[in-house]
Amino acid sequence: MRFTQFSTLVAFAVVACGGEKKSAASEAEAATPANTPAAAATAEPAGAVVEVKMTGNGTSMAAFEPAKLTIKTGTTVRFINVSGGPHDVAFYGDSIPKGAAEALKKGMPNPMSDLTGPFVTQPNEKYDVSFAGAPAGVYKGYCLPHVALGMHIAITVQ
Ligand SMILES: [Cu+2]
């Protein structure tokens, strides 16, 4: 009995110690200047969230589901890699409303280039695009790896 209690204590101490190490590492990370703070990447968006699935069979078919949607300014669109990845979402600079590029630059973390989100490679990995401050109009976009397969999306912001 006594031994069991001791083991539990030791196990707890090890866990506690591991936790401390982790938080020290996080502090070090937080202290390092970065474009996007680690906390921002994992924080839940404040406004409404609408999900868009990114699907494909790895060869001949790939799609955003839905491929057309209507949202309100301030909504976050969550792109989820369901199958056939890697996928990403990019917007046509000449096919978005005036002033939209500035809003999307703030709303698309870790871009590969202007208006082009990073590849989403892991199953169920997500990429959030914030339409905070986004002007009303139609935003036409595509998935870079699958644009030839017709993987397009049109988001209407009201
Ligand atoms: Cu794709």
- The CATH homologous superfamily of the largest domain is called Cupredoxins -  blue copper proteins
User: Number of helical runs?
Assistant: 3
By secondary-structure content and strand pairing, the structural class works out as: alpha/beta
Envelope shape = globular
Query: What spatial order of strands do you see in the largest sheet?
Result: 2-1-4-6
Q: CATH architecture of the largest domain, please? A: Sandwich
What does this 3D model show about the protein?
The chain is of the alpha/beta class and 158 residues long. The chain has helices at 2-31, 38-42, 100-107, and strands at residues 49-56, 62-65, 68-71, 76-81, 90-91, 126-130, 137-142, 152-157. The strands form two sheets. Strands 2-1-4-6 form a four-stranded mixed β-sheet. Strands 3-8-7-5 form a four-stranded mixed β-sheet, with no helix packed on it. β1 and β2 (62-65) form a beta hairpin. It is globular and about 35 Å long. The model is unreliable at 1-40 (pLDDT under 50).
Topology:
Layout: H1 2-31, H2 38-42, E1 49-56, E2 62-65, E3 68-71, E4 76-81, E5 90-91, H3 100-107, E6 126-130, E7 137-142, E8 152-157
The protein binds copper (II) ion.
Briefly say what this structure is.
The protein contains three helices and eight strands; from the N terminus they run H-H-E-E-E-E-E-H-E-E-E. By secondary structure, it is α/β, with parallel strands linked by helices.
